[in-house]
């Protein structure tokens, strides 16, 4: 008799918690700000100045005018004449002549002449010959 082994898979039961989704509806009043434009006429204020006169009584002391006489002695101006002799000035001129002598001096300076001379360099060509080597 031959014994055979057989592997059997037995399912196992595992308990899992389920997640429940409950939909809740909530109604909330939200205040929405609305802008309303309104044209309002603002009255323009004009200022006016009025001059109001209030009569006021003021007592002022006015000094009385008095006349005072004074006698002042003023010296009399007398003119004195004096004759002064002034010598007459005669003009004298002195003529002076100045002689300027000009001597011309000639200076001989050597003149340096710079010249660039170009020379052609000869072209050297190398000639290489291959000679076979003879071996014995």
Describe this structure in words.
This protein has no helices and no strands. The protein has 136 residues and is low in regular secondary structure. The mean pLDDT is 83.
Question: Quick summary of this structure?
Answer:
Helices cover 0% and strands 0% of the residues.
Counting helices, strands and paired strands, the structural category is: little secondary structure
Helix count from the secondary structure assignment = 0
Distance between the termini: 98 Å
Shape: flat
- What is the strand tally? 0
Largest sheet: none
What number is the mean pLDDT?
A: 83
What's the helical proportion of residues?
under 10%
Question: Quaternary arrangement of the chains shown?
Answer: single chain
Low-pLDDT stretches are: none
- In terms of DSSP E residues, the strand content is under 5%
Rg: 71 Å
